[in-house]
Amino acid sequence: MRTVVFLLVPGLHLLDLAGPAQVFSTAADLGLGYEVRYVSGREDVPTAQGVTLRAGTAWPDTSPDDLVVVPGWRSGGEVPLRVLTPGQASGLAAHHAAGGTVASVCSGAFALGEAGLLDGRSCTTHHALQHLLARRWPRARVVPDVLYVPDGNVVTSAGIASGIDLALYLVTVWHGPSAAASIAREMVVYARRNGDEPQASAMLRHRGHLVDAVHRVQDRIDARFGDRLLLSELASDAGVGERTLSRAFVAATGLTPLRYQQRLRVERAEHLIGTGETVEAAARAVGFQDARMLRRLRSRPGAADL
């Protein structure tokens, strides 16, 4: 049993809390073994949306397998120098020092900074607060324009709805992509978004549909785009015939499964090349036998949209 503790700060945003809480609650419903708890400095916790929540006030016992999450709160572009009590800050630091995972949503990253957990780490927060976070914690490496940033057992996410992406990422780490995909489908979250991918990534551009069988195949391709994937295997995953899958996939995404896989490969290769890898090394890393196919795909008209 893994305990997920949400540390609630007065004025918190409901979706910062409710999104990831729903992920772990759904994980528990699916038998993955989660207990969700809530703690605050006061029993009655006002929220930015006007609903008052109830929480325990005693810091819970946690183990290295457990997770502590700090949702964000309404900041108005400014964040007080101190939002945590000394006991809360030391509790966060102690949990991390014992090997536990600590996460934040939106302005919750400032609470992690208070606890001394951002120094020397990559992190992110809401786009409107990124410059303030960098000024407040100059030893942190603030990554702009991403959904979430894992750095060891500290994971930070951007604003509001990105808390869902962070929680699904942690489920993927702990239980695999299939479990995360099952939770996403249960929550009717059809865009399984990666933390280091921009909003315009291929994984997102072709997720704006409601065909569950196609989403299941996309999940498989997303997780294994560097492998050789047979259409028969993909159709079996979707529970349909090969011709049915091909028609449904094209209708939903505008691409064949192979073309979709190629787009993911090229996009990842472009990222690797941009970080200093050779074309040959990038081609091998994404599953091409040599660089010729990668060069051919990159040279096509409209390759920037791959």
SSE order, as H and E?
EHEEEEHEHEHEEEHHHHHHHHH
Strand content: 5-15%
Strand order of the largest sheet: 2-1-5-6-10-9
Name the overall outline: globular
Per CATH, the class of the largest domain reads Alpha Beta
Helix residue percentage: 40-55%
CATH domain fold name of the largest domain: Rossmann fold
Largest sheet properties: 6 strands, mixed
| N-to-C CA distance | 42 Å
Task: Supply the CATH superfamily name of the largest domain.
Answer: Class I glutamine amidotransferase (GATase) domain
Q: Evaluate the radius of gyration.
A: 21 Å
Give the gist of this structure.
It is built from 13 helices and 10 strands. It has 306 residues and is α/β, with parallel strands linked by helices. Helix 8 packs parallel to helix 11 and helix 9 crosses helix 10.
SSE arrangement:
Elements: E1 2-8, H1 14-29, E2 34-40, E3 44-46, E4 52-54, E5 67-70, H2 86-97, E6 101-105, H3 108-114, E7 122-123, H4 130-136, E8 141-142, E9 148-151, E10 154-157, H5 162-175, H6 177-186, H7 202-205, H8 212-223, H9 231-238, H10 242-253, H11 257-274, H12 279-285, H13 291-299
Parallel strand pairs: 1-2, 1-5, 5-6, 6-10, 7-8
Antiparallel strand pairs: 3-4, 9-10
Helix pairs in contact: 1-5, 5-6, 6-8, 8-9, 8-11, 9-10, 11-12, 12-13
Pfam families: DJ-1_PfpI, HTH_18
Domain HTH araC/xylS-type: 215-306
Keywords: Transcription, Transcription regulation
